[in-house]
């Protein structure tokens, strides 16, 4: 079970400040918005709050895919695995959302979890556990294949355990 104490570093996108994403504004393709932005679904964050912020990928932008990359995390050990909890929204027609791991010694990132347009338009939660013997970064990657209106991938409340 999770304790929501200080040991978890939470990124809820209510501000631009996130320890895990120091270059937050340099991550092209993601927009920080809320449900009232007039940009289509989602119309609220995962708690149902219309004015709370989240990140989304808008099919109205040129970029149909975008990566959100964390800063570098230290290797995990047996006592402190890195657990990442997050909420995501994937459009049912053509959205794909993936979490990848890029280790220090490797040039490309490997997918460790992925979901694509099989879900109804709703927020879902997931937790992944990362075990790495070397320094690594975590990449959240979203893609929308069609330019149809309302097709998007969104992410909210990314929480990192103290093992990260």
TrEMBL record:
Domain MAM: 9-164
Pfam families noted in UniProt: MAM
SUPFAM superfamilies per UniProt: Concanavalin A-like lectins/glucanases (SSF49899)
Domain of life: Eukaryota
Membrane-spanning intervals of the chain: none
A GO cellular component annotation in the UniProt record: membrane
Protein name: MALR1 protein
Organism per entry: Callaeas wilsoni
Lineage of the species this protein comes from: Eukaryota, Metazoa, Chordata, Craniata, Vertebrata
